[in-house]
Specification:
Blueprint (H helix, E strand, L loop, with lengths): L2 H10 L4 H10 L21 E5 L9 H7 L3 E5 L2 H9 L6 E2 L6 H4 L20 H4 L5 E2 L2 E2 L2 E13 L24 E4 L2 H11 L11 H15 L2 E5 L2 H10 L4 E5 H10 L4 E3 L7 E9 L6 H12 L1 H11 L2 E2 L10 H6 L5 H6 L2 E2 L5 H16 L2
Parallel strand pairs: 1-2, 1-3, 7-8, 7-9, 11-13
Antiparallel strand pairs: 3-11, 4-5, 6-9, 6-10, 6-11, 6-12
Helix pairs in contact: 1-2, 3-11, 7-8, 8-15, 9-10
């Protein structure tokens, strides 16, 4: 298969198992390196994991792969897209929600999670173990597997920004016109603009006069954007090439750039505070093989999976034991050496009620369209 087309199908979640193995070959992973399913293996497609592109990495659920082989995958660009797809009739066994969007995921026909079948729940950080939004009518629908931060990232060789200058306001600085990029989502632009305006008490739900100020600032930002990115890979490539020199970044992007070691950059600590998130797993709307479902959830919550999440994706594992398995130098480099303290000092994504969220989306769509 054509290399570009193969990657495109990978991102869209349309690969067959054979094509998936071919795709892994592009990254140096041969079929011989992939675990062979045991005699317990079910028919292909019996377990479907609906998640972010990139989270099909077998290192994130190794015990499951050892026992069952690879599941099937389907991907979404953001959670709202995924939710609408499920509402429209798509079915999956496992989904990957973030806690701030759980009230919306609940509307897709999710199945409750039996806590008695969770092997590592007591090993998760207490601060994120049982958030209110994980439950409905006393039943659990969400388990945390990872958390992390979003920030702004900039080229230290192509800008004159100093650490003491780090602020979300830099993403509205005309000095970087046509050389900046931000995630194409209200989950990015709304809190970034709110924090730049000083609305740090509730940056996710601006309304009324605050929303008018946010809208005005985002209209200014549109004229400065090189592009709004939907794929972190597109952003990192443009950043590495110098096409953009500053932008909104997930921690995983910084980790990949750091691993590549090709360009000098800094992942900022803005004075207004980092944006943080907590995400995990839920049983989706298909009543599949429960043994496989719980094996997948437990494999994803295991300390080995958390260690891989930290070392490969630069996100914090929900399992606190995972941190004991990672080099302390790396934890310090990733700003993950004090997990609960770091989370407490950030702006954690919060639920935005449906009507207000729709208003945010409509405003942002108009801005991008030039109206």
């Amino acid at each position: 298969m054509n290399r570009v087309r193969l990657i495109d199908r990978l991102v869209q979640g349309k690969l067959s198992r054979r094509e998936y193995v071919e795709a892994m070959g592009l990254f140096g992973v041969t079929a011989a390196m992939l675990p062979i399913a045991s005699n317990n293996a079910r028919a292909e497609g019996d377990l479907l994991y609906f998640t972010w592109a990139g989270f099909e990495d077998p290192g994130l659920f190794p015990a499951y792969v050892d026992k069952w082989g690879l599941p099937e995958f389907s991907f979404y660009g953001d959670e709202y897209e995924g939710i609408e797809k499920l509402r429209a009739g798509f079915e999956a066994d496992i989904c990957c929600p973030c806690i701030d969007v759980m009230p919306r995921w609940m509307s897709t026909g999710m199945h409750p999670i039996d806590e008695s079948r969770l092997e590592y729940l007591d090993d998760t950080f207490e601060a994120i173990r049982s958030p209110e939004a994980a439950f409905d009518k006393g039943e659990r629908f969400f388990v945390p597997t990872y958390w992390g931060f979003s920030s702004l990232i900039y080229r230290t060789d192509l800008t004159d920004i100093q650490p003491e200058d780090e602020s979300w306001t830099l993403l509205f600085d005309e000095k970087y016109k046509n050389r900046m990029a931000i995630w194409d989502s209200t989950d990015a632009v709304i809190p970034v603009a709110s924090l730049a305006l000083g609305f740090d008490d509730d940056p996710y739900r601006p309304d009324g006069e605050r929303l008018e100020q946010v809208e005005a600032l985002l209209r200014k930002q549109r004229e400065l954007m090189r592009f709004y990115w939907t794929s972190s890979t597109d952003f990192s490539q443009a950043f590495a090439a110098g096409e953009v020199v500053i932008g909104f970044s997930w921690a995983g992007t910084a980790a990949q750039l750091r691993s590549d070691g090709t360009v000098p950059f800094r992942w900022a600590q803005p004075k207004e505070g980092l944006i943080s998130f907590v995400c995990g797993l839920g049983r989706s709307n298909r009543a599949g093989d429960e043994a496989a479902v719980y094996d997948f959830i437990n494999a994803s919550m295991a300390p080995e999976a958390g260690k891989y999440m930290i070392e490969t994706f630069a996100y914090g594992a929900a399992n606190k034991t995972s941190f004991e398995m990672v080099d302390p130098t790396l934890l310090a480099e990733l700003n993950l050496q004090n997990p609960e303290e770091s989370l407490a000092g950030s702006h954690s994504y919060d639920y935005v009620p449906g009507e207000l969220k729709q208003k945010h989306i409509e405003i942002f769509d108009e801005i991008k369209a030039g109206f």
